[in-house]
Amino acid sequence: MVRHDGAGLLVAVDDGPPVRAMFGGAVEPAPVVGDWIVIDRFPNPVATLERDSLLRRRAAGSDAEQPLVANVDLVLIVCGLDRPVRLGRIQRTMTLANDAHAESLVVLTKADLVGPEVPAAAEVTVAEAHPDLRVVTLSARGGWGIDDLLDHVGRRTVALIGESGAGKSTLVNALVAEHVALEGVVRDGDSKGRHTTTSRQLHRLDTGGVLVDTPGIREVGIFADADAVAETFPDVEALAASCRFRDCAHDTEPGCAVLAAVQEGSLAEDRLRRWKALDAEAESSRLRSDPAAARSEARRMGRIGREAVRQKYGRRGPAR
Ligand SMILES: Nc1nc2c(ncn2[C@@H]2O[C@H](COP(=O)(O)OP(=O)(O)OP(=O)(O)O)[C@@H](O)[C@H]2O)c(=O)[nH]1
Ligand SMILES: [Mg+2]
Ligand SMILES: [Zn+2]
Questions:
Q1: Residues enclosing ligand 1, CB less than 6 A?
Q2: Would you say the C-alpha torsion 27, 32, 35, 38 has a positive or negative sign?
Q3: How much distance in Å is there from the Cα of 143 to the middle of ligand 2?
Q4: Which of 36, 79, 191, 260 has the highest CB neighbour number within 10 Å of its CB?
Q5: Whose CA is nearest to atom 13 of ligand 1?
């Protein structure tokens, strides 16, 4: 399935041009871009084939899971150098990629607009986000750095993620080497984008690779397994494993290896804060997506609450 928009689905087929299909409301799971689907002769979707993976996020302004792209191998974290490159955004996007078992690669684009010190500083920020995260600096407009990125893409399925105006669609056009995606103009003054791309769309490369352009994401909400956060923060996870208590919250507990590392300066307090925030977000998405886990968590909290009341008032509870 190559596009999902207001009118329905666009499905690539073996023989001939892509065909338009209905949304397929009855098909479970609902098809997203990157899915292999079966269509009948009308053509209506009748089945979604099993996915290798699903790139998803927490929907904007809600707690719900929003599927983005299926079967992704590589996520390009696209940052425009005409605006600040944010550590938190990179870590968040990487966490979504980890959740989909996809590799992450940071693309610093619009390098033609800035001096060499700007990508150099951005590379330091990327290394702070994760020591093994790779970076490609390029200019989609100037056409340089594109071959380097194509080498990384190869024959893989690639999703481009970044804020509006970052330069995703311009990059898609540069990679495909023809004008296939609609590009926007950045507003003067604040370098904000205009949400030019409004649907996710898949483009095939001559090399056999596949690119999925996506609409700009303002806030990268986490909907992920705890393991996905752990992969973004391997250093903190390693420390947490040697805390005295298995359920250490790394707040005030004795024998906390994480707090000890902060105290001796080998772990930045800011990094701990970011890890806690993402871990909490992943945990709440787990509870939402798993009703049984949510019930058992509610029971556990209920038990803790009742125990606290008992300790305070004795067996009979508070006077009514
Ligand atoms: N100078 C320069 N401008 C670029 C480059 N890449 C993109 N731009 C400009 O940045 C603006 C936004 O680019 P788009 O590719 O539409 O951005 P987008 O990330 O697709 O934005 P949304 O579709 O809104 O999410 C356009 O005016 C582009 O011409 C680049 O490498 N150099
Ligand atoms: Mg776009
Ligand atoms: Zn601890």
A1: 109-110, 112-113, 139-141, 162, 164-170, 183-186, 193-197, 215-216
A2: positive
A3: 17
A4: 79
A5: 167
Residue of minimum CA distance from atom 14 in ligand 1: 167
pLDDT of residue 318: 45
Indicate the CATH number for domain 226-311.
1.10.40.50
Residue in the block written with tokens 């705890």: 226
- Identical fold, 52-213 and 226-311: no
Q: What is the position in ligand 1's atom list of the atom closest to the CA of 109?
A: 31
Q: Is the pTM of this model over 0.70?
A: yes
Return the domain boundaries, the chain: 1-50, 52-213, 226-311
Nearest ligand (C-alpha, residue 261):
3
Find tokens 């556990």 and name the residue.
300
Q: What separation in Å is there between the alpha carbon of 109 and the centre of ligand 1?
A: 9
Ligand nearest to the CA of 238: 3
Cα-to-centroid distance, 102 and ligand 1 (Å): 24
Which ligand lies nearest the alpha carbon of 185?
1
Q: Whose CA is nearest to atom 27 of ligand 1?
A: 185
Distance CA 292, CA 311 (A): 29
Question: Can you list the pairs that 47-54 forms with residues at least 24 positions away whose Cβ atoms lie under 8 Å?
Answer: 52/101, 53/100, 53/101, 53/102, 54/100
Q: How far apart are CA 133 and CA 127, in angstroms?
A: 7
Tell me the C-alpha to C-alpha distance, in Å, between residue 158 and each of 139, 141, 226, 227, 252: 19, 20, 23, 22, 43
Residue 160 and residue 297: Cα distance in Å, rounded? 36
pLDDT of residue 124: 97
Of these ranges, 177-181, 219-223, 282-286, 313-317, the one predicted with the greatest mean pLDDT is: 219-223
Residue labelled with tokens 């006077």: 319
Ligand 2 centroid–CA 141 distance in Å is 14
Q: What is the pLDDT of residue 293?
A: 67
CA of 269 to the centre of ligand 3 (A): 13
d(Cα 303, Cα 71) in Å, to the nearest integer? 41
